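Subject: two folds for Thursday's group meeting

Dear M.,

Sorry for the delay on this. The cluster queue was jammed most of the week, so I only got both jobs back this morning. I'm pasting them in the order they finished. Each block is the input sequence followed by the predicted structure tokens. Could you check whether the formatting survives your parser before we put anything on slides? The first protein is the one we discussed after the seminar.
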Amino acid sequence: MRKVGVIGAGMTLFRRRLQETGKEMCFEATKMALDSAGLTRADIDMVVNGTAPDAFDGVHMKGEYLLDGCGGYRKPYTRVFTGGGTGVFSSIAGWWHVASGLADAVLVVNEEKMS
């Protein structure tokens, strides 16, 4: 197995957000993470997206809905949702992809916006 490291991070502010969609918040966090790592979307091999189960925020098929906001358009893309462990498990899923040699750079994006 290969060694894996975190090279960038981005997070939106925790506040009331009536106007922004989950997709817009994903885009904002994704841009911050890529900028902090000095990477572009072209440098990313695949995207892992962690979200709460669909019914929690009123958007169904959230994986498909959030895909482009997370930088996953035309990239291998995995959506992870495991209840309270989603944030941890999505990071583990990203680690698996790099450690196994399947990818060199994986963007892991977690999103939750309660309705």
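Second protein, same layout:
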Amino acid sequence: MRLALLGRYLCCLGFLQAQPALASLYHDYNSEPEDGALDPGSYLDRWNLPFIPVPKIITEPAVGTGLGLAMVFFHESDEQKAEKNDDKLVPENISLAGLAFTSNGSRGYGLAHLGFWRDDSIRYRGFLAYSDFNIDFYSFAGLPLSNGVGLNIRGPVVLQDLKLRVPGTPWFLGVKQLYRKVSLSLEDEIPLPNPALQQKVNDYLNRHLGEKGTTSGLGLVAEFDSRDSPIDPQRGFNYGAQYMRFDDALGSDYDYASYRIKGLNYWVLSPALDLGVRLQYDGISVNDDVLLPPYIPPSINLRGIPASRYQGNAVAVTEAELTWKVKPRWRLKGFVGTGRAADKFNELGEADAANSIGGGFRYMVAERYGFAMGVDVARGPEESAVYIQAGSTW
């Protein structure tokens, strides 16, 4: 017994004695020489490994708790690698690879790429993923439901957009493409409000569940971007509008149109305080005799509100976020948001508002790129949620 205790003591003593050396080695290769603060971006420079691992604890109410991991790769041009200045650098290319699993059986795998080419005169965004999600929907077959319906959504999705800068201006014009092939199945029995709805719901189930449906569309995009950085904006404006058409001529099983108007506003109130405001409207137009799958209509997208909890053919969201720069690398955030969902645009004023409130913090993990990570805690109408954030909030 004494020998065992002595062995444990010696192991602990050796570990404690090694701790300063290990800490020094870790600090030397992961800190910024100028301020001595932890900065994995410095590690990337030293070891020529241009990626940052981004772990994620998932607490999204729509899919349950879970774990995810993403690798964020920063690809600098030769000219950018030679730059050594205090300005935040926007790499020529940013790539991401990630996977995630949650407690309700949902899982997903994805690849993404962002390109800022020819001195940011060409912008590209591409996304390829395979998802197998179990999500509760509160609107089904065009009918609102008091209790959610659990559906399994499985299949690949491809999203791309390419924008060209109007020379000498902050304006971009471009095109966007979306392709989804989804298998939709019922996770749980549907609680019907009354027997009169039985036939309509059964017709919908026969048409949409158990078969793969393809969503394929093309669209136009216009964007105004005067932000000081797309990765960590603190001042400037980013307004965009897009229109997409989904049609059988493009290989889509569902004919409809979607549109979005989004505005991001950033102001520096003082050396220590920043303010951001997001305004967003999403809508779809579809013939009355067309029943779309439940994953197509837009929903209120706010921290603290489960995905697909409040859906409609017209959705409007407003969100404000105040940032307090406690130290050069540390920031505290507080935010509030509200959203409305309705069948038509002119009915938004009468729709019930879904509100959220919360706060969080950020740490600048790679100052060279302005790349920050942190945690947000938000409270919505029904429940609370915790989010691990990486990069810009919006």
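Two things I noticed about the second structure. The chain has two domains: 1-29, 31-390. The radius of gyration is 24 Å.

Cheers,
T.
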